[in-house]
Amino acid sequence: MSDKFDVIVIGAGPGGYVAAIKAAQLGLKTACVESWTGKDGKSQVLGGTCLNVGCIPSKALLEVTHKFEEASHDYESMGILAKSVDIDVAKMMERKDGIVKQLTGGIAGLFKANGVTPIHGHGKLLAGRKVEVTDKDGNTKTYEADNVILATGSKPIEIPPAPFDGDYIVDSEGALEFTEVPKRLGIIGAGVIGLELGSVWARLGAEVTVIEAQDTFLPVVDQQVAKDALKQFKKQGLNIITGARMTGAEVKRKLVYVNYEDSKGKQEAKFDKLIVAVGRRPYTDGALAEDSGVTMDERGFIFVDDNCKTEAPGVWAVGDIVRGPMLAHKASEEGVMVAERIAGHKPQVNYDCIPNVIYTAPEVAWVGKTEEQLKAEGEEYNVGTFPFAANGRAMAANATGGMVKIIADAKTDRILGFHVVGPQASEIVAQGVIAMEFGSSAEDLALTCFAHPTLSESVHEAALAVAGGAIHVANRRKKK
Predict the structure, then answer these.
(1) What is the pLDDT of residues 39-53, one digit of tens each?
(2) Which of 322, 351, 380 marks a domain boundary?
């Protein structure tokens, strides 16, 4: 194997492996360096956090527990009598691991099919686009490339009041490996990860308390949607405490004692397990030599331009280690863009059209701007909403909570924000993404024929409602 490549990618997560495959498809001699080792202590594991301990395993658990929740509480009202529904946690975890193994193995197959050279070890960028790889035995080898793509991802943030012990106080990865349902579960952080993991274990019977430092629930989400979601989460039994600053956690007699302060003063709670989900930080530990030419900010994010170029010639960076949301699909789009730019093309990522999803039940999904952002910017806009409670398909599916909300520019009618809380929000939001990518107006969606009966009809009705013309719900009276 030659030690010289057109492209070397460091990291095989959603940004890295996609960049490597695309670069190889474009005729570039490509290698991808990844240090993740399987449970056997030998084999290389591809896919990064997302496939191994993030997006995929968490969704596998969310799907199973959602079905369990429905069977336990909702089937009777639909005429299905399932008297004794139980959960086999070990079987659930085994299934989750099987899905992960299938997908990570699939990437290895795609590398082979596309001619990507996998290199197992820890990659470090040296000066002059050289990459030093250290294997598990400590042996090093140096490779050269015309272009290097950094895609090393992120890791959970650990906070001083609650250091991880891997048993009682865990990060998101540990929360995917519980062997039994904790009786009382504490979660620090009411963000995407905290809410999803809280939902998983609450559905299986855990008494879940989520402690959030910020006063506002889901401040990045449109607040009309966030308030609707919060109401539904609380109805499901999630105890969500906002405006609560954690001050300490101590494990005593197989329990975690948590101290926090809220508007009522000092509080204490005790849990069987505590998940700390306060966010993630860029993972660049040992990935850059001092003379690599790549610069970072004080939080560890690598400086890049709009096209993901770093300040070092021929070095690019994508995904969680650069500005923008820490989302797998954003990383993948950046990986494709960089590979194509290296090959001489001129694509760009439209950062205004990146969807966000929280895979709770109901799901929460959005793209574009919130009403709060537009108010702060002084923009004039119109809003159309439509509740799933008035949607026939949602009634048939016994999933009538939530709404679709469309925000359009008051003058041009161009869609500025598209927000969904409710069933299949993660799929419905794609309609908003496509519409916004093509510069659609709310009227464009209002003039489009949607199949009946579908959940997507709520998009049609919300678009009609922007101009006060919804059919299946009473419209707001326009101010004269």
Answers:
(1) 888 999 999 999 999
(2) 351
